[in-house]
Amino acid sequence: MRFILIPGLWLAADSWGPVTDLLRQAGHTVQPLTLPGLEGSEADRSGLTLLDHLDSVLAAVDAHSEGAVVVGHSASATLAHLAADARPEAVTRTVMIGGMPATEGRPFLEGFAADGRDVPFPGWAGFEPADVRDLDEGARARLEAMMRPSPAGVLETPVAYRDPRRHDIPVTVICPEFSAADCREWLEAGLMPELAAGSDVELVDLDSGHWPQVTCPEDLARLLAAAGSR
């Protein structure tokens, strides 16, 4: 199988390191992405929008004729869904880790303060206890060392979908800091219309916090391989 791994906010391809290695050892083709503006702390993030990040994902999808399982962590669940919307014939499944696709017309992500062109990591105090429950001091230090600001223009861009065939692409939602039961309740309450419209949505529990690629890469790689094989 071919996997495209999209990091969440503040992270780049190196955040997928152990997961990438484990999937490759299992015989899969894996491409972890570094999105525009996330090349380093000093990268130029001026003028970047969500379309720049989507173009980067689609370039990876289009690079091979083989279909791809597109994986999005956290806010990048929306990028995975946008890739399915733009390439429904090439994306075989999307996997969303700790995130769900944004609603049509809403900004890509709200709730984080911008500093000019940048949205810097806000510090651990801004997260719920469930998000960080499995992050000891060492894991927090490893994550912080990989973090760089995300482009403010990306977060501010309204999300627009085009092709209803996106709802036919199978979806696996890996539920780390929340449970599959929580996710079902949110779906029934109408809080996630894009996910609710899907014809094949699988919810899978993972006992971790918000960054399982760092805290339990073996478990996450196993779930990704299992999702891709279905």
TrEMBL record:
GO MF term set: catalytic activity
Gene3D superfamilies: alpha/beta hydrolase
Domain AB hydrolase-1: 4-222
Superkingdom of source: Bacteria
InterPro entries associated with the record: AB_hydrolase_1, AB_hydrolase_fold, Sec-Metab_Biosynth_Hydrolase
Name used for this protein in its record: Pimeloyl-ACP methyl ester carboxylesterase
Lineage: Bacteria, Bacillati, Actinomycetota, Actinomycetes, Micrococcales
